[in-house]
Amino acid sequence: GRRFRSRSFSMAVKPRLCPTTPKELVGRFSPELQILSPHEIAAKFPMMKDGGHYTPQSCDPIEKVAILIPYRSRWNNLHTLLPVLISVLTRQHVDFTIYVIEQVSGHKFNKGLMFNAGFIEAMNQRNFDCIILHDVDMVPVDDRNLYRCNKSSPLHFSSAVDKFNYSTLYSGLFGGVSCFTADHFRLVNGFSNMYFGWGAEDDDLRDRALFKNLSLFSKPSSIGAYNMLPHSGSHNWKKNSDRFKIYHKRLDRIEIDGLNSAKYKVATVAFFPIYTWLTIDIDENE
Ligand code: NGS
User: Fold this and answer.
1) Is 175 close to ligand 1, i.e. is its CB under 6 Å away?
2) Which of 88, 16, 78, 74 is nearest to 45 (CA)?
């Protein structure tokens, strides 16, 4: 009798939805900025599996979140960010998968194209609801900054960066860390693929959203707090001197330059415990 009762009970009760303000949150914290190996990170978070996927066990997640991190020769930044980011995400009860999107060819880094490639490949694997666009050097330092989407508009997460005295560099800045619902990212046709080198691809994305009548919100600077990691080693991340010229014509290209015209080849896909690692080939002639 007892056995039957407990069984039917557990089948009847659905776990409740994950809380919007989990009690595990600590608020502002000082992260340990240390470089761990992928193996050490995996050992720290044994509940992660299958290409950097985690789902909360104690509650029903509200949405499926893909964290997209474009990458090129920033090993130390990535492996300093991830232990902190994964702790935050698990405390927040987020259902997430981490994608590292590495550009392995081409002279200059094209972050917009890497985000587009990451989005397309991630959506081929799972029907994500929410996409976080995450720079590799941005370490969150306040876990009240929830890694969740707002159905009505894209959000800028990194409104208070230590490098800029925990303020926003300029009003309208949308780079660093931000999120879009998958639907909104498709609506704006993703990023422009035309920015090779540093700068302006994020300003272009913001203007696509405004052009499509999306309102944009920024996290309050009291919680949108990040530490920007120093760049180490060589990086092919030179300022793009053509960026203002390309930016000038940004609104003419929304429908023809973006997700629907992204040219790349997935060279390899590797499923590690802490991330899905994509290597991406693009045309060399830029
Ligand atoms: C602006 C760039 C943005 C960039 C922002 C912050 O000037 O792409 O600085 O950069 N816009 C143009 O170049 C038109 S940061 O200092 O955080 O690396 O995101």
Assistant:
1) yes
2) 88
Contact (Cβ atoms closer than 8 angstroms) between residue 49 and residue 91: no
Going by C-alpha positions, the residue among 67, 40, 63 that lies closest to residue 51 is 67
CA 240 to centroid of ligand 1, rounded, Å: 11
- Tell how far the Cα of 169 is from the centroid of ligand 1, in angstroms: 9
- Answer whether 0.90 is exceeded by the pTM: yes
- Note whether 247 and 227 are within 8 A (CB): no
Helix/strand number for the chain, H first, E second: 7, 12
The two structure tokens encoding residue 67: 């964290």
- 57, containing H or E segment: none
203 close to ligand 1 (CB < 6 Angstrom): yes
Question: Does the beta carbon of 138 sit less than 6 angstroms from any atom of ligand 1?
Answer: no
Cα 62 to chain centroid distance, Å, stands at: 17
For 179-225, the pLDDT digits (tens) are 999 999 999 999 999 999 999 999 999 999 999 999 999 999 999 99
Q: How far apart are CA 68 and CA 280, in angstroms?
A: 14
